[in-house]
Amino acid sequence: MQIHNPVLTGFHADPSIIRVNDTYYIANSTFEWWPGVRIHESKDLAHWNYVTCPLNRVSQLDMRGNPSSGGIWAPDLSYADGKFWLVYTDVKVVGGAFKDGTNYLVTADDIRGPWSEPVRLNGVGFDASLFHDDDGRKYLVQQTWDFRAGHHRFDGITLTEFDVETMRLKPHTARTIWAGTDVKVVEGPHLYKINGWYYLFCAEGGTSYEHQESVARSRSLDAHSFEVSPLGAFLTNFDTPRSPLQKQGHGSLVETPGGEWYYASLCGRPWREDNESFNGCRGWCTLGRETSIQQVAWNDEGWPFVVSGHGGLLEVSAPSDAVETIAPTDYDIHDCFEAAELEHDWNTLRVPFGPDMGHVGGGELTLYGQGSLCNLFDLSLVARRWRDFDFDARVQVQFNPDNYMQMAGLTNYYCDGAWSWAYVTWDDARACRVIGAAQNDFGNYTDLGESAVPVPDDVEQIWLGTRVRTGTYTYEYSFDGEHWQDLPGTYDAKLLSDDYVLTKTGAFFTGAFVGLAAVDLAGYRTPASFTNFSYEHR
């Protein structure tokens, strides 16, 4: 059996992997998307099934107003004392000297929940993980953020003892155990005790093409006691620019029942335009940062290394004791919205789907118009990850606006600064509904203007679609669901990539989504009814 990378496609960053008996679990970052933290399970490391999102109550996670790429950073999943432990950071500030990220802890007896109310830990840094030592003591391990002028923002890895009796950090126990290498930007720490050594795995170099994973170890948990691996970078694609996998680094280690070792990390799969060179541009990651798994071995001196070399491979041998897992081979869907709850791959931004946003069931999804797609507070949008480079998505919508402030339709969305959509609205000049399309490129807003397509008066249902073909995408419409016409314009998909958004802002941690949205800036909450959504890879 082979592991085909990435094992989790489309925006599944910062994997935290564990094994409980014969089952592996991976928890991934979700940033500003609701619900918080996605967990998948597998028995063979190759095929993965969705399990749950443990942060599904506002009492656990309140992200209203969070900036794009704020919210949940690098959750850490662990298992000890007969229960699951999940540490996560809610980041309220993305750019500038401060991050204002608070670390929380929730627990559960069963991975599927219910998960507890959160325990507030601290806010001195993000990417926190919980280490359970073999003597019963527990420690919070985290990146430390230094906001002071003249200081490097990444101030090493801090260890603080955690008191299980009080469920609080013990005062005056914090110390820096490792400052990182000269690569700098040390973050994403995970600590393990193996054969009497404490091994510290950390990400360095940032989360773009310079990204790497480093390893240090120590016989103790004393301050500044860790020494870096003499083997160099444990995992990186910095010097493998032609590899189809890029950006590998931030992740975690797991041991199989039979004593084999694997490492789950984030990765990117960039595509390139014909006139772009490897040296000038490694490409555009519209699917965001995904999850890959590489096989690990140990040398005679007890240092870990990636078996295939630090660049990793697209295909890796599964564990010899793997139990074959049945899981989806594609993510095609036809959703008629018959159920009273949204299917688990639908997400909302910052807040849960509820009566303020709309309702679902009985064959339709109704969204009440709220703010624009730039809004960080009141937004009626449900969306799902791009899981393929090439796909078609279509939906049927019924919407009756009476002014141009009211819009509803189908969107391709990265963040509040980078999105486009096809939508139904009202044209004052022609006194009729029209089908328009618009793009927001960080404040550079363009739409079809007079090229918007009039909707005949006798048409109630309108079909909208998008065709994504790696580097470009288009929108289309139909008045009967059978005969389709293209809307004017071909859109550059790279504008919905991590790499393009990085050139505009520091908030570039998610990936492209396709979704449904309703806007009513006039304040009447005009409803839009959607049904027959389909997503098909090509």
Explain the overall architecture:
- The chain folds into 2 domains: 16-238, Glycosyl hydrolase domain, family 43 (Tachylectin-2, Chain A), CATH 2.115.10.20; 333-537, Jelly Rolls.
- The mean pLDDT is 96.
- Strands 26, 28, 29, 31, 37, 38, 39, 40 and 42 form a 9-stranded antiparallel β-sheet that branches. Strands 30, 32, 33, 34, 35, 36 and 41 form a 7-stranded antiparallel β-sheet that branches.
- The chain is built from 1 helix and 42 strands.
- The protein is mainly β.
- It holds the Pfam family Glyco_hydro_43.
| CATH class division of the largest domain | Mainly Beta
> Would you identify the CATH architecture of the largest domain?
5 Propeller
The total number of structural domains is 2
Q: Helical stretch count?
A: 1
Pfam families: GH43_C2, Glyco_hydro_43
Keywords: Glycosidase, Hydrolase
Domain Beta-xylosidase C-terminal Concanavalin A-like: 335-536
Family: Belongs to the glycosyl hydrolase 43 family.
